[in-house]
């Protein structure tokens, strides 16, 4: 049985079917946490973040909570591993002022993206309809998970690459520019990377990556450029080799 077929079966038979083991798993997990006395309020926080409210004031507005009540709930969800705080990485370190909350647990992200908003359909047994929605959007969902895999890989094998004191992502204040992977050391960017969950990434990603490095300014001059992709075509391989860009494919990540 292929990996994709196995994933499809798990989604259809264990996650999207009412009464099956994973259909309400996030609800069960929150109810069973010893440190959570009112699961509903914590569920509302995660639901708000899943819907796009990622900063404290936005989450407070979505959940009709005051900041003094919300802050300990956010801290507890972070400590339990359900949420995480993402901060952009610059040569001077991470920048808390531009940080935001996101769901850390991959299954929670999946459940709040596909199960929760479709529960009315799933309750009526329209599993195949929702499954088709999931399958059509799964590559988009996988993008975020793939970014973290790439950062973890760089952290593990950094000794074979340019120096990396810190590894993360970067985005500007307005949110109009975002870079999947940056590494820093001694006050400079040492690596800049893009992560493309694509079965056949095109050579155009190299041009976009170079523009990303230019956005970072002089402190990214000389940084090693990396492209992470599920699969690369012949043209991308040739251009990456010619321009001395490190190409990392899924086979490399999981070798």
If you had to describe this structure to a student in words, what would you say it looks like?
With 255 residues, the protein is an alpha/beta fold. Helix content is 49%, strand content 18%. The protein contains 11 helices and 9 strands. The protein has a 5-stranded mixed beta sheet with strand order 5-6-7-8-9, with helices on both faces. It has a two-stranded antiparallel sheet with strand order 1-4. Strand 6 (178-185) and strand 7 (188-196) form a beta hairpin. The model has no long low-confidence stretch (mean pLDDT 92).
Can you give me a brief rundown of this structure?
This protein has 255 residues and is an alpha/beta fold. 49% of the residues lie in helices and 18% in strands.
Mean pLDDT: 92
Order of helices and strands: HHHHHEEEEHHHEEEHEHEH
Radius of gyration: 20 Å
Give the helix proportion (percent range). 40-55%
How far the N terminus sits from the C terminus, by CA atoms, comes to 21 Å
Q: Could you say which overall geometry the principal axes of the C-alpha atoms support?
A: globular
Number of helices: 11
Instruction: Please report the total strand number as a whole number.
Output: 9
Ordered list of secondary-structure elements with their pairings:
Elements (H helix, E strand, L loop, with lengths): L2 H13 L9 H8 L6 H12 L5 H8 L3 H13 L3 E4 L2 E2 L2 E2 L5 E4 L2 H10 L3 H5 L3 H30 L9 E6 L6 E8 L2 E9 L7 H12 L8 E6 L4 H9 L3 E4 H4 L2
Parallel strand pairs: 7-8, 8-9
Antiparallel strand pairs: 1-4, 2-3, 5-6, 6-7
Helix pairs in contact: 3-4, 6-8
């Amino acid at each position: 049985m292929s990996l994709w077929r196995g994933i499809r079966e798990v989604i259809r038979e264990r996650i999207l079917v009412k009464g099956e083991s994973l259909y309400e798993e996030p609800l069960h997990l929150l109810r069973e946490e010893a440190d959570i006395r009112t699961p509903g309020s914590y569920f509302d926080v995660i639901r708000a973040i899943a819907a796009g409210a990622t900063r404290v004031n936005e989450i407070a507005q979505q959940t009709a909570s005051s900041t003094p009540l919300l802050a300990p709930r956010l801290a507890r969800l972070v400590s339990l591993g359900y949420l995480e705080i993402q901060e952009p990485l610059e040569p001077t370190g991470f920048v808390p002022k531009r940080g935001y909350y996101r769901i850390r647990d991959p299954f929670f992200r999946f459940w709040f993206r596909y199960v929760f908003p479709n529960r009315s359909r799933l309750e009526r047994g329209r599993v195949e309809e929702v499954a088709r929605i999931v399958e059509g959007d799964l590559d988009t969902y996988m993008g975020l998970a793939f970014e973290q895999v790439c950062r973890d890989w760089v952290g593990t094998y950094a000794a074979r690459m340019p120096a990396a004191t810190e590894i993360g992502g970067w985005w500007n204040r307005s949110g109009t520019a975002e870079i999947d992977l940056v590494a820093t050391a001694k006050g400079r960017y040492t690596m800049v990377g893009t992560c493309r969950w694509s079965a056949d990434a095109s050579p155009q990603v190299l041009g976009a990556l170079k523009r990303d490095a230019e956005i970072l300014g002089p402190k990214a001059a000389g940084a090693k450029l990396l492209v992470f992709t599920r699969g690369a075509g012949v043209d991308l391989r040739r251009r990456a080799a010619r321009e001395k860009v490190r190409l990392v494919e899924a086979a490399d990540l999981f070798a």
